[in-house]
Amino acid sequence: MKILITGCAGFIGFHLSKRLCEMKHKVYGIDNLNDYYDIKIKKDRLNILRSNKLFSFKKVDLNNKKNLEKLFRNRKFDFIVNLAAQAGVRYSIQFPQKYFDSNIVGFFNLIELARKYKIKKIISASTSSIYGKNKKMPFKENERVDNIIQFYAASKRSNEIFGDVYSKIYDMNFIFLRFFTVYGPWGRPDMSLASFVTNIIKGKKINVFNYGNHQRDFTYIDDIIDGVIKASQKKIKNKFEIYNLGNGKRITLMQYIKIIEKKLGIKAKINYKILQKGDVKATLSSITKSKRELKYKPKINIQEGIDNYIKWFKKYYKI
Ligand SMILES: NC(=O)c1ccc[n+]([C@@H]2O[C@H](COP(=O)([O-])OP(=O)(O)OC[C@H]3O[C@@H](n4cnc5c(N)ncnc54)[C@H](O)[C@@H]3O)[C@@H](O)[C@H]2O)c1
Description:
Elements: E1 2-6, H1 11-22, E2 26-31, H2 39-50, E3 55-59, H3 65-73, E4 79-82, H4 91-94, H5 96-116, E5 121-127, H6 151-169, E6 173-179, E7 182-183, H7 192-202, E8 205-208, E9 215-216, E10 219-220, H8 221-233, E11 240-245, E12 251-252, H9 253-264, E13 269-272, H10 288-294, H11 302-316
Parallel strand pairs: 1-2, 1-4, 2-3, 4-5, 5-6, 6-11, 7-10, 8-13
Antiparallel strand pairs: 9-12
Helix pairs in contact: 1-2, 1-8, 3-5, 5-6, 7-9, 9-11
This protein binds nicotinamide-adenine-dinucleotide.
Nicotinamide-adenine-dinucleotide (NAD) binds at residues 6-7, 9-13, 31-34, 42, 61-63, 83-87, 102, 106, 125, 127, 179, 181-182, 188.
């Protein structure tokens, strides 16, 4: 198959591109290689991908519709996986414009081209942040999401709504995957696991918001990739679907830190902080629908996942 993956130099895009090439699909990856976090890791991920002949890369910004269209002209993609986005919750409070440009205008450009070039299937990354201040746990795909508390989640929810409408008007199929805090080797340096591990190793204090009372459903990268692939293989029944991809278990921030301390053999120095604006207090996925319809089955528990991450981290950063 010919597959277009946006955001292929990113954490999830890298793992997905690699897996699809190993499955002998032809992957066309695009990314604007922005400097939201250290660009070296994006380039290192790309170098690994480039070693597979089935992978090809173009530096393209979703905002540049003209350049984006060049990709569509001579190829018929079997499907698109859209992972390019301005990610991050706290950053969206400072820089909403970046989220508007990449996540809303960029997304619109992509689905417009998909419509023009008759690409029928689009899988797009959504987020657990959409559940915002919803109280009832676990979060289910069919519940109302009227409690969004940051622009990042607002931009992702707007994508889901655009997709729903496009699927009703045009002959197009959309699957939105709501990822729950993804972690693992090659993970994003701006996320808590990377900053905790870095600071604990350096003997620096770590900032722990909401006094450590946050709860998260952490999902290991390989489980997420399995879920995305299963979504891509799913026979279309409904033209618009949303699936949670989580681990289906939650732990507190303090339990999480304890696991990291144990694996590193170093005690963390903690700077307790109040709850930050935009931070969701707790997440927990219901994966009943994903299990039933996608046969999604997360396998990696948090101890094993953090262990794998720390092994990769020490090797990559030569510690
Ligand atoms: N990692 C998580 O825990 C998590 C959780 C929920 C949702 N998501 C979503 O999953 C997707 C992938 O996340 P990730 O963790 O791999 O993030 P990432 O930042 O590592 O990857 C995103 C990639 O997209 C690229 N990009 C950004 N804007 C672009 C644009 N306008 N044009 C082209 N490329 C652009 C970036 O350079 C980056 O390489 C994102 O949509 C993110 O919002 C991630």
